Amino acid sequence: MISENNLLPLNNTEHFLKNFLKKFPVYQTKIINPLANEQNYIYLLHLLEAEWHKQLPDQTFFLTGSSGHLSEDFFIPENQNVCILKNLRYMPLLMHSHQFIEINYVLKSNHSLLIDAEKSTPLQDGDIILCPPNLQHTFQTQNKNSIIVDFILRVTTFDTVFFHLLNNNNYLSTLFSNVIYGDSNGYIIWHCQNDSALKELVLKVYEEWENNLKYCDKMIELLVMEFILILMRSHEDEAVFSTSYINNSDENFRSLLNYMQMHYQTVTLSKLALAFNYSERQIIRIFKKNTGKGFSELLTEIRMNKAIQLLKNKDIPINGIASMLGYSSTYYFNKVFLETFTFSPESFRKRIFQT
């Protein structure tokens, strides 16, 4: 099996980018956000392309067809569901979002940063980041010893292949659902420095992708599934949500949330208070402290995340799903779902099964 040292040598694109930053040092630290200044973004792309054709005239420009919002097909080959990449070192700080789900594994950090719209987060060896669709972000990896491996997943593939792994009433399921399907505009990060099993899986996945052996696409899907399972089994308590669920170390909060996930059909604030011998005011205070949200908002999130799972079973009618979630009115369920996800339950079901 390959080792992390096999990933250290710079490829042609990284050599080009390193020379580009030497020639234009302002782009070593300048963050370019197309949403804030599209002209600066377009200018940098033109500058990169002009320098590329000077240095590598016989090669296609590596950002041809790119934009501030990357499509799945920009990276993922046709008829495949997953793509494995090595994050480009010395890339200028181009903020971008994408249509796909991205899981990043930090093999070697060497002062790498994850930059989003709010802050810059220092990364450590063994960190895992789940970047959902539409998250504005970039990585600063301007060090030859930095190695970050990217798993690029089609959203429909995550829906049909991977998301059933999260069909559990637990805290991590809520985090995944909220990041991928909600409007949180945040990401999840795990600090898994000492997990050799995850590291070995990442290297195995990368080797499968590079060697392109027979059935490698299916093998990669299975390995990524194993990766997610180990992450859930061994590191649930280490998941940190970048925006809403900032403080997930409060055991009282976790116990309350797990109870709500087990009894989402019938739970009320008064029943929850009675089950834990708290006052309703105490429960509201715990929720506000840990999430900034109230009981009703959290219950709606839990029910909507469960709705996403149930809608993938086309044999269950939508009015049946509404009833299973604890809604007495299908009309009200449709209304809440639309307000949460900006599309109706019927539209989501069509999106899942159209492929």
UniProtKB/TrEMBL annotation:
<keyword id="KW-0238">DNA-binding</keyword>
<keyword id="KW-0805">Transcription regulation</keyword>
<keyword id="KW-0804">Transcription</keyword>
<dbReference type="InterPro" id="IPR011051">
    <property type="entry name" value="RmlC_Cupin_sf"/>
</dbReference>
<dbReference type="GO" id="GO:0043565">
    <property type="term" value="F:sequence-specific DNA binding"/>
</dbReference>
<dbReference type="InterPro" id="IPR014710">
    <property type="entry name" value="RmlC-like_jellyroll"/>
</dbReference>
<protein>
    <submittedName>
        <fullName>Transcriptional regulator, AraC family</fullName>
    </submittedName>
</protein>
<dbReference type="InterPro" id="IPR018060">
    <property type="entry name" value="HTH_AraC"/>
</dbReference>
<dbReference type="GO" id="GO:0003700">
    <property type="term" value="F:DNA-binding transcription factor activity"/>
</dbReference>
<feature type="domain" description="HTH araC/xylS-type">
    <location>
        <begin position="254"/>
        <end position="351"/>
    </location>
</feature>
<dbReference type="Pfam" id="PF12833">
    <property type="entry name" value="HTH_18"/>
</dbReference>
<dbReference type="InterPro" id="IPR009057">
    <property type="entry name" value="Homeodomain-like_sf"/>
</dbReference>
